[in-house]
């Protein structure tokens, strides 16, 4: 197996070799071009992201700066937004659903490193995929670690370190990130009331 094949299979690998170096250089080029765009170049930004990522939905927006290892292992759905300083270390697949919003400095890490220093010092590492469902809000300065799945309709509080799976329909926060409570019908009613008041005010 090549180093890239080993990486994508979740086996120990070394981040070297012609294929991985080529993919990494392409990602660095595209992220450099993206990060050097201006606020007037919204369409060009989206074009660069669609070239960088493996798959994208409609209406994706990322505030520069943004960085990733390869980009080709990232999939995002419709209506994706990431605020400043998002970093995605995508040595394994990162799948993000529809209507997912990131606060500033959200980091997703799929890369893992051996506990044994002897093995780690040989520059061996591995990757585990990250999956985020639909309708998820991730607060600023959150770190999402390798192998984590975050369910749909869930809110992750700012400053969280997500080390284990988080289910659908909850508010979770902390280091390590834990479920605080379920999202209820009372939450929906409260926020729909405020939404209706907003539209009433702006339409008067």
UniProtKB/TrEMBL annotation:
Residues 4-58 form the Maltose/galactoside acetyltransferase domain. Its EC number is 2.3.1.-. This is Acetyltransferase. Keywords: Acyltransferase, Coiled coil, Repeat, Transferase. GO terms for molecular function: galactoside O-acetyltransferase activity. Belongs to the transferase hexapeptide repeat family. Residues 20-47 form a coiled coil. Signal peptide: none annotated. Pfam families: Hexapep, Mac.
